Amino acid sequence: MMWKKSLSFVLTFVMLLVAFPTGAFAEENMIEVWIVDSYRNVFRSDAPNEVKEISLTMAQNEYESTQIVLKGIEEFTINSISFSDLVSSEATIPAANIYYNPVGYEYLPRSSSGITTSIRPGDGYCPEWLLNNQSIAVAANIAQSLWITFYVPKGQTVGTYNGTATVQTTKGNLAVNISIEVCDVEVPDGKDAELNFYFWQATAGWYNKPKAEDQIERYFGNDYCRYSDKWWDLMGEFADSCRRNRNNYLTVPTVNLLYDGGTVLNPDGSYTFNWEKFDQFVSFMLSENWIKGLVGNQLAYRPSWEKPYLAYIIGCNEDGTAIGKNVDIASDEAANWFSQFLPALQEHLDSKTITGTQKTWLDIWEQTIVDEPYSSQNSAAWVSLYNYVAQYAPSFKTQEAIQTRGYLENYEGKMDCWVPQLDVLANNLSYFKTRQNLGDEVWFYTCLAPKGNYLNRFIDQPVWMGRSLMWLVYRYGVEGYLHWGWNAWHYAQPRDPYGDCYSVWPDVENGTITETIRLTALRDGAEEYELLRILERTQPAAADALCEQVVKSGTQYTSDPEVLRDIRNTLIRAAAGEILDTSLMTELPFVENFENGSISCTVVNGTWNIETRDNNTVYAQADASSEATVLLGPSGNNYSVQTDLAVDSWSNGKAVGVLGRYSNQNNYYLWRIGNVGGDNRLQLLRKLNGQFTTLYEQPAPFDAFELNNLKLVLSDSTLKGYLNGELKVQINDSALSSGRAGVRSYATDFYFDDVCVTDIAMDSVEYLPQTAVFSDIEGWKKISGTWSIEQLNGSTVFTQTSSVGAALALWGHPLWKNYTVSTAIRVDQLNGDSSAGLICGATDNMNYYLWRVAQDNLGNQLLQLFKCDNDNFTKLYTESISGTLLGNDTFLEAVVNGSTVIVKYNGQEKFRYTSDSEIQGQVGFRSLNATFKVVSLNVADESTESDVSVVETYENEEIAMSDSKI
Question: What is the pTM of this model?
Fold first, then answer.
């Protein structure tokens, strides 16, 4: 097995022939060594950094990798690496638990098409292979990475372990110190994992095509024909890799195995099934101790995207010889096959017991029907084939990859495990959550898509993306991840986008496979998923908060490797029992409207549920017997908290309001509406060391059963309380200096919506109308670009001076709705495909509407409206414009009214678009490859705009944009 072969290369003693201090040069030959974590892609041109020692935090039964990188002014050869045992004061991790692979590089002729996250613009070499050879030659002035993998055994004593790695080269030896912190938490084996992690594999042929060219024999030669000794050795290598990298589902090419076993179609139309090869193959893989589930390869395939599906069957020639055939799924041959094959398969699986368990093979079997049905014809074919399964093998659990939102309703009650493509899941999350609530499983998959800036695992994307995909499984609350291309070697390389087909490569010379840095990244993410699940059992809020720091969606994620590594270390320590303060894990503004069906609040007490009231999703509290408290956002001292709330019951003693500077149940400020002897009152209370003090109380006219907006502003010692936008109290009190925001009720059931916690600068621009004063730009959130202020004709203007790439800045309040935003901008420079424009309805820096002037690569001037949804742009409107953009004021205006946005250019209305939900959020500016000045910006209440129904609106008319940059 490859794992065993790799270990045989590892020396278990430290060679002291020519030892150098940690991080030193090999003196006379000038070889430098440095350390890079496994979150980063190391390029041949990389320069040394300052990190000279390996330091890792690890769980028990976990693998983790890092990189030793060498570079010399002359060519040299890395002969080997030897590792010492890692020793703590109480225990040892043997050197046999450490191994290494030189990193090999794949040449890419260009960046993967359609992605915006490539690490290699243009052609060049990208790190990819984990070579099985022990030594590697290194050219002068070339950085060479050595991928070092550590394994901490189950039950390893907690503590810090130290040791040494010594790199032996033809120019001398270099020593690197190692420190491993082992924490008291154990990752379960892949076969026992919570995560369903499935790579489709080609083993005994290609899909269910018995006579198709066998790709293993094609690469490795005739000695590796199916069921030969060398083929079985290679299957062992496959199993080793799957076990080590946590792939826990096996693809079973059922038809191929039955054909190879000697299954025949008799003259009378009956089949005689021979299960010899099927049993031999499945039993072998189960004995290798890595399998959680078996997946029966698909029952049919399509010759092309446009052609109908054909069933895989075993037929016969005129002389009676068995042959593999592909026939129309509606044919008599197909009906005869399925009526015998499916019940025989179900019965056989149920007769086979998994060693050491009470389970049968049937218990862990999932049957795929046809891959990626995407059209009406495909969907109908899927249902037709499913009907065979339902009739003849009703105990089968079904699984399928879904690449489109279309026709999902056709599969309801038929598909047990839904595996939508990542973008399909993200854009239809509520639908798939409903399927889960009804008892179905939901996973997601990636392949050639999605592209753009979605997380994926192409060779020229950051290697950390593989880890983050597994965090996204946790974030979305689904049960598994699928990728089809573990060893799809039928496809020649390179295939754009690169790396989709190959997660391992054939290593013919060594009779094994070559793993990749992308595969190990998925392994690491799968381990971290298990740690999140472990943490969830004791600190669910901490698990959610850590996960949200890594990924918010498939297009919203942290891209800083150092931050990702720190979060991983925090996760391990927390899963081992360290208590985390989740209040420090979220940045302002904190906005929650509960529309995605989930919450990002911390419940202290009470009975809370997501509910629908008046067609809005709200957070409701049902306990009317005592107090109920939920906390929002991070801990801090100066901020504003507000929400809309209404009660379900109202009588003497009942109250509900917002909290500020909450540190615990005995210390906080509370701004609330209350019922005192039947009278409605506004109250500002301070609870200090468990004792309430009334700071303000006055009667107030409000209907507690209708939504009321309560807002509390805390600015140093100044406290302000608002009711429905009107300031009611301002006092000074400095007893409490810091804590979280929240919502609290007493003795009443109620609900709240549209909660918002903002910093003071943002709060100052909440109420409309507002005019931006560019002498003070502290309230602006400058996401990207180069922003400053300068003088223009005696006035102060807001400028963006980066002419390369996108620049984005936001201003205003996240709860702004029903407003008109108008601006005058002056474009100074356009650089090829370039633009500058106005943003409205921005819920964050990845979701907004963009109304802009633009220039394409041919010099054409355009006026365009885009909707940006999770950083994916959809073009809603475009027209050519004349005149000179450069140096002249351009007037852009956007009117936000409910779910409609109306855009105007130089005072003339151009387009109206109606969304399927209310539009609200901040305003701002975005440019691409352009510099410009903001001369003025005004935001007014939209009360003066005429009825939007007078002019035709465009509901959900989305014009697909080209692949050009936005």
Answer: 0.68
